[in-house]
Amino acid sequence: MTDLKRWDEVLNIVSGKDQKAVINPNGKYPIYGSGGVIGYSDAYLCEAGTTIIGRKGTINSPIFVNERFWNVDTAFGLSPGDLLNPQYLFYFCCSFNFNSLDKSTTIPSLSKHDLLTIQMPVPPLQEQERIVAHIEELFSQLGNGVETLKKAKQQLAVYRQAVLKEAFSSVTTKKPIREMSCLVTSGSRGWAKYYASKGARFIRITDLTRDRIDLKNESIQYVSLPDVAEGKRSRLMPNDVLVSITADLGSIALIPSSIGEAYINQHIAMIRFFNAKQGKYMAWYLKSDYGQKDLLRNKRGGGKLGLGLDDIRNTPVPVVDDDSARKTLAQIESHMSVCDSIEQTIGTALQQVEALRQSILKKAFEEGL
After folding, report:
1. pLDDT tens digits along 102-149
2. Are 298 and 312 contacting, i.e. CB atoms less than 8 angstroms apart?
């Protein structure tokens, strides 16, 4: 049976230091925080083969560094002693739940004292090397599977655009949005002071996607506005079409009938078409390559691109009767529902891969591979 040893018996913890005195963009050694490389330095604190654990912030995402580096004060460097294979230590860290040691009430944090009390199995070095080799073999197989799943997801994105290209290929007549809409506006600034735990929904760019016209609902922000708030002018209605006008330009979303009271920030424009029934049709058109080409033709700015409201008003969209719009939507949604089903299957498979990784690590350090 493999002996359990405390970390203070088998490794050293190198506390990070402020990097300001050693930072050099052309330095030889990377500077690491708890989440990865944040700069470069002419000096180092940790040797190659050290595992980084966050002291504050990101505390449960170990990083293995195979070169000398400087760690800042938000990151601990775990330097293995003679009894530990460096990668064996790293994989143990990947299997350990560091959140269980977090005693903070705000930003996740770990103490050096608590880390040194952790116990881990320490078999002979030859056995550690065998376990590491087996873990990496299994992880490589999982990695191949992940690459296949990611390629399938990329192919879905291409297929979605092909569906839209086919759906709108017969469009012949277009007019600028200014002639097809009763309102084009963007949200106002200064919403943070109205943030609340409940109330009206506040839609940000992070709520829009590149491949769908549905709003994301994973992290909803709410606002509570006084009656005189300037932002009330941008209150949304069902079938309004949203367009991101800064950062990731041209993301499109459609406001659903169930939206209730909702508003947008200054990074999003809203289009309210005269014929609200065609809002979904117009959203899918603007999502298509045809719509994106016209929409982004007048993007402006050097390092920071943006769209103005007049750019949106001047964007041409199809002139189509309701019956034709309805048939086109039926065609689009039939294909998109298949894509959604496949994408959900891929997402489930990717989650299962992560569960398998943890299962492999659990077996390695609790039962032995």
Report:
1. 988 888 999 999 999 999 999 999 999 999 999 999 999 999 998 999
2. no
Buried b / exposed e over 158-180, threshold 16 CB at 10 Å, is eebeebbeebbeebeebeebeeb
Q: What are the tokens at 187?
A: 């949200």
Q: How confident is the model at residue 188 (pLDDT cuts 50, 70, 90)?
A: confident
The H-or-E segment that residue 263 falls in is strand 262-264
Rounded to whole angstroms, what are the CA distances from 206 to 244, 249, 265, 302, 320?
A: 10, 12, 11, 23, 31
If you ran DSSP here, which 8-state letter would residue 230 be given?
Answer: G
Report whether 284 contacts 164 (CB < 8 A).
Answer: yes
* pLDDT tops 60 at residue 292: yes
Distance CA 11, CA 82 (A): 8
CA dist 352 and 332 (Å) reads 30
For the chain, the maximum distance between any two Cα atoms, rounded to a whole number of angstroms, is 79
